[in-house]
What we know:
Order of helices and strands: HHEEEHEE
Shape: elongated
Strand order of the largest sheet: 1-2-3-5-4
Largest sheet: 5 strands, mixed
Distance between the termini: 19 Å
Structural class: alpha+beta
Helix content: 10-25%
Strand content: 35-45%
Radius of gyration: 16 Å
Amino acid sequence: MAVAGKNILKAIGDLYDGAGGSALRALVNGLYYDQAEQTASLPYIVFHIINMSPGRTFNASELREDMLFQFSIFDENRNVDAIWNIYDALDALYDEATITVTGYTSIAILRESVVSPIWLDKCWQMSADYRWEIQKS
């Protein structure tokens, strides 16, 4: 994982666990990295980093990371409105959020795409991708 990887995972979790994440936490039973626990009960969210690409600004000494990460939402409620409500709370928390990563300055977090819910394996599944750019402080 790129230089900032571990700190980025922590920052995503910290935002969820903080005061701003209360609306989302009220709707789901947890946020997990890569895979939910075997004992996890629906609804929940799993996130993972799809891609991290290092780069430099015009000033070659300024290191940047460009990341694409995905949140996958799982909900067994037959009413599709429930998973959309979870998505709305997720998007309100992460889209255009300010996240602190030790040693880096957050430039932007923007929703890049959303995949509409599908009913599969006895639950609704939906995902949203976000692009995040940070710059070495």
